[in-house]
Amino acid sequence: MTADLAGGYDLVVFDLDGVVYLIDKPIAGAAEAVGQLRGRGTAVAYATNNASRRAADVAAKLTGMGVAAEPAEVLTSAGAAATVLSEKFPAGSRVLVVGADALRDEVREAGLTPVAAADDEPVAVVQGYGPEVGWSVLSEASLAVRAGALWVATNTDRTLPSPRGPLPGNGSLVAVLRTALDRDPDLVVGKPGPALFTTAVAQARAERPLVVGDRLDTDIEGAVTAGLDSLLVLTGVSGPADLLAAVPAQRPTYVAADLAGLFRPAAESAVPPAAEDAGGWRVARDGDTVTLDGAGDPVVALRLLCAATWSGVPLSGIKAASDAAREVLSSWRL
């Protein structure tokens, strides 16, 4: 058994946006991390809420970035949504598709008939991210749902990570309909629902799976819901302040700056850490206040502070007692 974090698991399920790549740019070290896992015989899977590409297209994109991937290893919310609809409605049923061509293709391949207008009397509306989604199709979806169509969202991620910063995600588009209809979707298929993860585990016949993600409200909450260990990497959406304020349902087993954390001892990423694992930092708690002193790896400081904030210290109660501590807290906007 390998002594590093990844060595304790027989399957690693990666989120994509914010973990392996940012839009169309690979994150440094991702290809090497996947290659190292494959080299030691660890199974790999990819689970994404992005419904704008089919599994084969995602695998091709990853391969083009130097990240080894097979279509069968990719689970998308588009494919999952189409499967759910095919189980609920007879073959040939009309489904109004809000999203990219990939979602439309998944619906068609599932034996259903994609349509674009409420006048086609669809039995359901399925809504996924698509960069060309606009007022016209959202209006048709609104009319269809008001007429009784089942409303299924592939996911409700408010944002997508990008090299320029967070961009509006499917959740922002779902919010348009939520405002117009004054209600939530009937079903959200993707993360934080556990289906993508449990499917990956079943396909790999894994006994010790690990989920790696960048979002607390989807990747990590989905892992917690599925009863799986998880690693939060700080290369995407959720940052240190988010982790410090995380509710129990969104708390990861581990946290690391990036995927290199997979290949360090698990104890160096466990959150919260053992009290003696300070790495040059010192924390002292006094009631609702915790003081950070010393210097060292910011992720170690983050792990130490999680022990305090997860047990009742508010973010406003975090204080700095050294220049390095002040610099770290400032970089976290605390």
From TrEMBL:
Regions crossing the membrane: none
Q: Does the keyword Hydrolase apply?
A: yes
Which GO terms of the molecular function aspect are on file? hydrolase activity
* UniProt entry tagged with the keyword Secreted: no
What does the UniProt keyword field contain? Hydrolase
Q: Which SUPFAM superfamilies match?
A: HAD-like (SSF56784)
What domain of life does the native source organism fall in?
A: Bacteria
Q: Where is each GCN5-related N-acetyltransferase-like domain found?
A: 279-333
> What PANTHER family does UniProt report for this protein, alphabetically?
4-NITROPHENYLPHOSPHATASE-RELATED (PTHR19288), D-GLYCEROL 3-PHOSPHATE PHOSPHATASE (PTHR19288:SF95)
**Protein name, please?**
HAD-IIA family hydrolase
Which organism is this entry from?
Answer: Paractinoplanes aksuensis
